């Protein structure tokens, strides 16, 4: 019965003795000569990406900022605040001053001039910072100062304050031409995602000229699937020549982390803004002096404006007096379809072209008015000087209900209207927030009427009907008699809108 155990003992001893005298184990060496040319090509691409990343990383900067804010330190948290919030706590008359604490943020940037210590980053990275700390690729940490920032494009310039900072192991990055960027080309995004220093991600350009993203008020974006996360803001997006073609700025994400949809400010815009910030301390940009409608050019609007089907452009809702647009003869209701020989498809595109053009630039425009195509050349003003810019409508505030002791006229379209003059304007301005002192003020709208269905509401001021200025209710009735459809231009809380009513 003991023999199996004895056999097992001898077997174990034999194995142990064999391992004492055998050569150390080594994994087999791969036969690299068996790889095809295709695999070797992939290896070369991989090596090239690694080489570009390592070289570009020498110009990447980790930016840490501090803001001084008033508040209680975490160790002095008031229990009452914890349960009910600070807004419910009564201020004690003899309470000591609130202590100050620091809030820190982390972003990225990249060196564009090593000799002068110039660094480009996003404006939102350094905005409001009381202290800026710059950690360079060679391990050196220095204080930075802001040379200038532009909220409209989210571009800022920072400089290392120590002129004798250690430059060994660093490199400045060259800015490429973003107009040459093509969808599908490979790119590398560098920065400090979630504070992880000098990280890189690899991907491709997903789209160019992405607009209407509400990231900035001016400029379009390069879209990429290279992973961009919080902390990447301000870092470079480089192409396969090692040139900066964009600056990582924002992501589209439901979770707050990368979803493969990142956006970068194009390098041509970055260069233009950064150079102005260094040379002038501000960004000089042109302005047109128009207010642009947020309404889309749908079939109703195209029909009411007598425009060809499929027309796309920027609908002018208001022209400010004495502005370049007014001097060029532009009017409310015009639809601008071309600027500088290039088609304009929306108000955002027009804002980009005008806002990124220099003051005093002569800009040729093409626009539709009453179904006819016109042209004009506008000499742009200075946005900073005149404090105006081609822009979207102001927010659409809900107009209050009818009121007052006026004796309005009943109208067959379901409207109760009252003609405006300067005296009436003064009476209703606080109630309805209107700018116009002429036209027909809507005091009430029948909920079941076609006027209500078209979007007209109390507080609106009807200015024109089928291009006819409205001074009295009779004017509107005459237009209704002569047409099966009335196209209205109206004001709502300072915004100019358009609507149509059919009989």
What report would you give on this structure?
Among the domains are: 178-279, Trypsin-like serine proteases (Thrombin, subunit H), CATH 2.40.10; 286-392, Pdz3 Domain (Roll), CATH 2.30.42; 409-502, Pdz3 Domain (Roll), CATH 2.30.42.10. Helices cover 22% and strands 32% of the residues. The protein is built from 12 helices and 28 strands. It has helices at residues 3-21, 37-56, 79-84, 123-126, 267-279, 299-304, 324-327, 347-355, 383-386, 422-432, 450-453, 473-482; strands at residues 60-70, 100-113, 118-121, 131-135, 141-150, 155-160, 186-191, 199-210, 221-224, 236-238, 244-251, 262-266, 286-287, 290-292, 314-319, 335-339, 342-343, 362-369, 372-379, 381-382, 391-392, 409-411, 415-419, 440-445, 461-465, 468-469, 485-492, 495-502. A hairpin with a 7-residue loop joins strand 7 (186-191) and strand 8 (199-210). It is elongated, with a radius of gyration of 33 Å.
What is the CATH superfamily label of the domain at 286-392? PDZ domain
| CATH-assigned fold name of the domain at 286-392 | Pdz3 Domain
- Please identify, by name, the CATH architecture of the domain at 286-392: Roll
Helix count, DSSP H or I runs of 4 or more residues? 12
Q: What shape does the CA trace take?
A: elongated
Helix percent band: 10-25%
């Amino acid at each position: 019965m003991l023999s199996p155990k004895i056999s097992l003992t001898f077997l174990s001893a034999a194995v142990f003795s064999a391992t004492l005298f055998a050569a150390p184990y080594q994994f087999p060496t791969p036969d690299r000569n068996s790889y095809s040319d295709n695999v070797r090509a992939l290896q070369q691409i991989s090596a090239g990406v690694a080489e570009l990343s390592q070289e570009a990383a020498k110009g990447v900067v980790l930016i840490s900022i501090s803001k001084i804010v008033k508040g209680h330190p975490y160790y002095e948290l008031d229990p009452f605040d914890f349960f009910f919030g600070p807004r419910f706590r009564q201020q004690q008359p003899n309470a000591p001053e609130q202590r100050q604490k620091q809030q820190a943020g982390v972003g990225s940037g990249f060196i564009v001039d090593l000799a002068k210590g110039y660094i480009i980053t996003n404006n939102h990275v350094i905005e409001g910072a009381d202290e800026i700390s710059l950690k360079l690729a060679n391990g050196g940490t220095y204080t930075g100062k802001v040379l200038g920032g532009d909220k409209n494009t989210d571009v800022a310039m920072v400089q290392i304050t120590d002129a004798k900072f250690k430059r060994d192991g660093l490199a400045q990055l060259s800015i490429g031409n973003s107009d040459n960027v093509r969808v599908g080309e490979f790119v590398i995004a560098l920065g400090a995602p979630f504070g992880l220093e000098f990280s890189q991600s690899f991907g491709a350009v997903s789209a160019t000229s992405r607009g209407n993203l509400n990231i900035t008020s001016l400029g379009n974006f390069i879209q990429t699937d290279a992973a961009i996360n919080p902390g990447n803001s301000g870092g470079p997006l480089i192409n396969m020549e090692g040139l900066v073609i964009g600056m990582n700025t924002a992501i589209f994400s439901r979770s707050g982390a990368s979803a493969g949809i990142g956006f970068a400010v194009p390098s041509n815009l970055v260069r233009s803004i950064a150079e102005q910030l260094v040379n002038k301390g501000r960004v000089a940009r042109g302005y047109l002096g128009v207010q642009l409608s947020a309404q889309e050019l749908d079939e109703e609007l195209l029909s009411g404006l007598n425009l060809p089907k499929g027309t796309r452009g920027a609908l002018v809702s208001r022209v400010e007096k004495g502005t370049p647009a007014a001097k060029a003869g532009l009017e409310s209701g015009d639809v601008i379809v071309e600027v500088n020989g290039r088609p304009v498809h929306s108000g955002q595109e027009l804002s980009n072209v005008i806002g990124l053009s220099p003051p005093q630039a002569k800009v040729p425009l093409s626009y539709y008015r009453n179904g006819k195509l016109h042209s004009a050349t506008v000499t742009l003003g200075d946005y900073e000087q005149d404090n105006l810019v081609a822009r979207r409508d102001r927010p659409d505030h809900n107009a209050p209900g009818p009121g007052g002791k006026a004796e309005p006229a009943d109208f067959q379209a379901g409207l109760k209207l009252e003609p405006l003059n300067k005296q009436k304007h003064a009476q209703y301005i606080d109630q309805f927030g209107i700018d116009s002192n002429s036209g027909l003020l809507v005091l009430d709208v029948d909920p079941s009427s076609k006027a209500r269905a078209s979007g007209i509401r109390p507080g609106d001021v009807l200015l024109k009907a089928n291009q006819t200025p409205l001074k009295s209710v009779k004017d509107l009735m005459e237009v209704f008699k002569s047409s099966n459809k009335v196209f209205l231009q109206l004001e709502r809380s300072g915004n100019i809108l358009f609507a149509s009513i059919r009989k």
